[in-house]
Amino acid sequence: MRPFRTTLATAAALTAATAGVLVAHPIQPAHASASDCESGARGFRDHPDNAEGDTDKPADFSLGSVRITLEKGSYVGQQIAFGKISGQTRPGHNVWMDWRADGWDRDQNAMSPWLQCGPFTVRSAGQSLTTPFRRTSTDPQYQFRVCGSLKSDGVIRCSGWW
User: Fold this and answer.
1) Three-state SS for 29?
2) Nearest 5°: phi and psi at 8?
3) Exposure string over 60-83, b if 16+ CB within 10 A, otherwise e
4) I need a labelling partner for 3 at 20 to 30 A (CA). Which of 21, 63, 104, 125 fits?
């Protein structure tokens, strides 16, 4: 009976270790380049880095004195969303926006599991920086989130999907 218990315990430990490895490797975005959403690519539009959305932010978080927000606003009568980093930023801080739209633009803009718009890197102290914007939708499969990192620790943080 003892060899069976040892074998069972070994199998359980291997299963737990394998499951932990699978969880530790998150799904990666379909793309991770600023060029994938600049200059009108994939339906994104450029705008000034001092752009501001509505006062109601769909998502925001602070990393010390740096604020990262998912902004929403209006452009030519359509609601839009974009990411922004502001506050006491330093060169090397990053911001980007992830976009997923399961079932949308399947042929032209494959986004499995999402498209990463950025990163965009702060170049001077105190610089506010935005991502290009994209129209939003009421479809629950059409979602955005904002992400960012500080040069000092490199840890990536993201908001929830909106």
Assistant:
1) coil
2) -65, -45
3) ebebeebbbbbbbbeeeeeebbbb
4) 21
What digits encode the pLDDT tens for the residues 66-125?
999 999 988 888 899 999 999 999 999 999 998 887 765 554 554 557 888 889 999 999
d(CA 150, CA 162): 23
| CA-CA-CA-CA torsion sign (75, 122, 65, 95) | positive
Q: Which pairing describes strands 31-33 and 66-75: parallel, antiparallel, or unpaired?
A: unpaired
- Report how far residue 54's alpha carbon sits from residue 52's, in angstroms, rounded to the nearest whole number: 7
pTM: 0.73
Q: How many CB atoms lie within 10 A of CB 45?
A: 17
How are beta strands 129-130 and 134-135 bridged, if at all? Answer: unpaired
Token pair 């990192």 is at which residue? 149
Distance CA 77, CA 146 (A): 23
N-to-C CA span, the chain: 54
